[in-house]
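Quick start: load a record and inspect it. Here is Piriformospora indica-insensitive protein 2-like:
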Amino acid sequence: MKMSFGPPLCFLIVLLLLSLSLLSVSCRGQEQENGSSGAPMERREQEALYSAIQGFVGRWWNGSDLYPDPCGWTPIQGVSCDLYNGSWYVSALNIGPVYENSLNCAQDAGFTHHLFELKHLTTLSIYSCFLSPHQSPVRISSFSWGALSNTLESVEFRSNPGLVGMIPTSIGSLKHLQSLILLENGLTGPLPLELGNLISLKRLVLSSNGFVGQIPPALGGLSNLLILDCSRNNLSGPLPLTFGGLTTLLKLDLSNNNLDGSLPRELGNMRNLTLLDLGGNKISGGLIEDIQGMVSLKEMVMSNNPTLRGELAGIEWTNLEDLEVLDLSNTGLRGHIPESMTQLKRLRFLGLSDNSLSGTPPPKLASLPCISALYLNGNNLTGQLDFPGTFFSKMGRRFGAWNNPSLCHRLPLTPSSSSSSSGADAPFGVRPCSREGNASSSSNHVGSSLSIAKISEGRDDLHWDLQVEVSVGCPSRGGDGSWWGSRGKVTMALVGVALIVVFV
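Running the structure step on this input writes:
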């Protein structure tokens, strides 16, 4: 007798078979997952991890109870593991308040020899862990870093003011190290020559410590280096000539040290360099022509080197067509601003303030398509500042030309008014020109003298208008920062004079 199944029953049978199939797949997946997380971890590796962490966070931390399977189902925040030959090993250790559940350091935190027993460690990061340089100072462990020479690729000690002393010379044995960051710590002493042995290094950041002495010439042999930042230390002496060998370097920041001497011509070999910051040093000898070879430069900062001196005209600035930031403030520069600087079409910031530059600023500076900050203040510039009023309006205080006693402006009339000058657009601290094209004589007044500017006698010159200027020892400005000089202010002044005459 044949059995027949109705449509509802067939649907139920299919649904049951599908459910069994999914359950089987889920079970196999769970078995695979359990098999993976159940991979063994050498007991010696596990104990070394627990003891190394205890050295930083305190002996109260019982890793074996809290995290019995640190590379499996009970992971530790800040610890990463990798499989080697079927067993788990620690590959990264991050100490410090980076994440919400990160391992935070105890007051008596320190290095232990167990750290160097993590035989497959590639990354070590200690952030904001050693905080007291006086009560609990800590030195970088003098244990043999050579034990990690075949694995360690990245070392970062950041924001540890209580981390003091010198860089141990044994760090030079880390032949696979690609990144060494010692930033904002309390480290002191000279830079060890052994840093030159880190042949795989791509990033070396030693900023914001108290390092002293000269920069080791051996650093010039790090042919793979991309970033070198030794800023904000007390380094002295000249730049090593060997730096010319750093042809792959992208960023060189040696600012805020006590470096002296002239710029080495070998810097011109750094054709891939995009940032050069040597500001805040004692460099002398002027700008060298060889910087024209640094054709990839986007930012060049030489500010606050008052002994640099020299002139701008010796450089063919058109070769640096990618330049976006150029800061040469307070460098003792002399001579004129060359026209070639007006060809830097990507320039966003130009700082030439507090020098001894002379001559008239090239009008084409105002036509630079990307310029957003231009500082010419504190020089000996002369003549007429022939920039359009719209430029001053756009830039505001991001344009500086004050403290140039012989520099003046002569603005055209605004399109909306044929009878008033564009006083609101006048550059801060720059006097209007006299009829002869020089700065108004009242700009040299000292004391509380009252002077009324000449009123144009029937002149229909677009560059002239009625002006009144009050001098009481410093230039008078309106509450909005604009310079007095509109016809409305003149009218008020004349009405006041008339009233005085009437009452007298």
